[in-house]
What does this fold into?
Amino acid sequence: MKLQELLADKEINLERTKLIRHNLTNEVVAANYAHGYLELYQSIQSPTRFKNCDTVISFLGTEGTNGVFQGCYQIGDFVPYDRTKLPEDFTPDSGMTPSTSVIYELTRTDLLADLKDRLVIDWGKGAINWCQNGTTEKELLAIRPAVSEISFISYDKVLLSYEALRKIVYNKAAYKEWEEKLSAVAGVYLITDTKTGKLYVGSASGEQGGIWGRWSEYARTKHGGNKRLKALITADSDYCNNFQYSILEVFPIKRDRKEILEYEQLYKKKLRSIQFGLNDN
It folds into this structure.
């Protein structure tokens, strides 16, 4: 089935539609995605990018040539590009300048809203062409099942028990969004012993498969190889049920590991997790 067939009865003019795909292998895309600025990033274009168009349908490239549906947007007017009016931690790419770029008003619509992060297409061999016409046929690869029991909202709202983490890791097909989101970023995370209140600060780099790769180790081993956590599990194999997982800060997946470790040490000092918690160095 083609994406265009799915849209056939949706009252959308494909002749006046653009399909765009943001690839997470692009460091700028990954940085803005990690900070929740993907919609802002896609609104900054050349003045002619969306000329004679009414609609933009947005996808996220997470692996291979796939495209995971992010939303459908109505195109409005645009204003001049002004970096000073954007968030300080927004990451512009080299082509975003006042002389070449504008900021479009893109308003999210209800079209396919229930399929966000569930509808997956094959963008095709021309993956480098990130913006294509709405009439360019795209093969529909999958519509993932809706999962409401454990929903990913945002990185700063991640708060998982060990049981929930293990369920997500061992049921990747059902919780595909979690794998995609946590594989897309490096970061500094926190494990809280809810029984004693003691804290463990850890980090994950791209070399470790991002936060997903590191947390998968916790799901499998219960302790992730950490000395003090391992001691707790050795004394009581079910002690992992007291652990709670959250994220302190995220970084682009390709961020230098040394820099991530520096932030890890900073959080250890802030939270005093060596002196009073579960870190041993």
About this structure: The radius of gyration is 21 Å. The helical segments are 3-6, 27-34, 38-43, 162-170, 176-183, 210-221, 227-235, 257-271. Residues 155-271 form a domain with the GIY-YIG endonuclease fold (CATH 3.40.1440.10).
